[in-house]
## 1
Amino acid sequence: MKFQDEFRDRELVQNMAGNIRRMAERLPAPVNFMEVCGTHTMSIYQYGIRTLLPENVRLVSGPGCPVCVTPIGYVDRALACTADPRNIVATFGDMLRVPGSHSSLMEQRATGADIRIVYSPLDAVSLAKNNPERRVVFLGVGFETTAPTIAVSILEASRRKLTNYCVLASHKTMPVPMEILTCDPDLNLKGYLCPAHVSTVIGGAAYRPLAEKYHIPCVVTGFEPADVMQGIEMLLAQTLRGEARVEIQYSRAVSWEGNPKAQAILHQFFEPCDSVWRGLGVLPGSGLAIRAEYAEFDAEQVMTLDVPDAVENPACLCGEVLKGKLTPFECPLFGEFCTPEAPVGACMVSSEGTCAAAYKYGR
Amino acid sequence: MCLGVPMKIVSKDGDNIVAEVDGVQKEANVMLLGEEVAIGDYVIVHAGFAISRLDEEYATETLRLMREVFSAEDMA
Ligand code: SF4
């Protein structure tokens, strides 16, 4: 297909690898670049990109899988919502297997909880319309890519004057965690392959403060193998020239200003808030909360959720994997005790999780 | 979950489109797009919404640059 096949051309990718190797010979010291998106991580494992890179150019996986960074406490709150028989809990499919402190949505569903998988947040609004005697609680997770679609669902519910639709919101926003990771001396990051789809909404300009303040090159990069290779080339070129700018490799989909319409609707319904990230803790201003004007659509406001403190599985190293400090292969549970069928941590659940990608495609 | 797929618009009715990739058709809503789209255009579809239109000119340009980089190196 156009926009896809050409960017998977083996010969093209091989030749780009040759070019990267030649550039890397001029590096004074090894460099670590972080691929932020879970979809980048998938693509990198799927196409064996790491095996094409010279030893002194390392790719580190970042916190860009929305399901993975959703903290266990949120899963517990979602599980608490399923306890009220009036509630229908609607969710994107990949939240289903994410372990909470004591159970998962999948397990609750097996014991009779009404949990529905939807493809679009608008399907959840239809559920509310068709079940007026029930209350639909939509699990709002995701980055700036997803948050506008959930904002539209609230808009639609308010247009239809539905009083039985609400969102349990745990949206996260992007540049903040990158700033935290840039400052981590253990990671010693020298460049970012910035998220692709998030950037269709927020625009390439959103990374400028990061690039300037920390003097770190940022390239908004697409997901196909040739995109990733070109993103790495562009980061290397900047490194060799001593520059730190934002560039857009994925120009066929991402502009500097992003998608103003999606931004406007997002800000109409949500405002920035502090947010807990799995592995990273509370990051100021890194989440999105439903604005007070729309409290009637905020699950936290319309329900009292009494949830005890979350209990993490101490053996799961997801937090370290999400920070790029460990690879899945370094987790003792990986592969044997933790698999996509029986996941211990969120990183093994989502199709974009680093552990799931490593399990599916190997090194 | 953050997945988004480039899909070709095959029909359109107001804000609702049907888009196709690899023979699979999906319905999506275009109200989040800031620009008009038409049948034959490519969009990235995420969670039932088109979130971005794919620009053919930029795609061609990107491919041209990719190919140029290695041919220049090969001549060296
Ligand atoms: S392999 Fe499983 S237990 Fe280990 S970090 Fe990944 S998700 Fe957690």
## 2
Amino acid sequence: MEGSRLARFVLETAWVFPALETLHFFGLILLIGSMYVVDLRFMGLARRIPLKAVLPFIPVSMAGFGINLVTGTLFLFSDPSRYYSNFAFRLKMLAILLAGLNAIWFKIAVHADILSDTNADPRTLARWIAGLSMLLWTTVIVLGRMIPYLE
Amino acid sequence: MLDWLESTDLARMVQESIWGYPIVLSGHAVGMAILVGIVLMINFRVLGFAPGVPILPLKALFRVALLGLLINVVSGTMLFMASANSFYESNPFRIKVILLITGGILLVLLSRRIFGPADSAQKTSQAAVKSIAALSIAVWIGVIVAGRLIAYWDFY
């Protein structure tokens, strides 16, 4: 991977790394900002907003995730041995995996109920899933920020 | 003044303890996600996205965004104090501060119009509110770009 032309382009062209990092931050804002809005509503904040109405923010999360999957993969390509052996990076990947499983849990256990009943109050399970989502995504930010300091 | 800031106990703690800098930096990144993330989503709604969301109850989310602002004013001040001279000389940092002030003014203007009393809300045209929202999105993204560039642009 390190010898690929893509890896050398990312590492050796002065502006590419900062540009990708900025894009990674933009993806973070879209992904986690929209998750916070959905999660806070499902945890019981701003009850006058119908639950169903905040669902359009989920595709925004997915767009942000897509941006960060691409930019993140490019970071990994540029220096795989650095990331692979990094403890913060490994924990970050684990936290993303758990956040993804948590999102699937939401889809299976909560999503259909919300679509069928517009004004249903969030059930206890939905609150827990939303709280876990906020916690996991916030952990992802912290672990990402720790990567340069744990090598 | 800058030298004095760098010599305070708080600045020394951020500079010298192994975990001081990464912890404050992580706090700054989380505050950014809370503030800019939620502000962007509110602005998306003002521009017409997710029309099923009523505007007034967004005030509760706006307050959470202000909590993110508070986190970042505190963590940002600590980061500034740790390397006051370098930040002061940094052009991306200067641009970031100007954009931050602009972003703050736009937040006040927007919140007054969308959360204010109904009569004042009616006085403001939809087009004006939407222009503020669009400008606010651009300015806050600019804050992030300038912030990221501080580390790359002649920062010693």
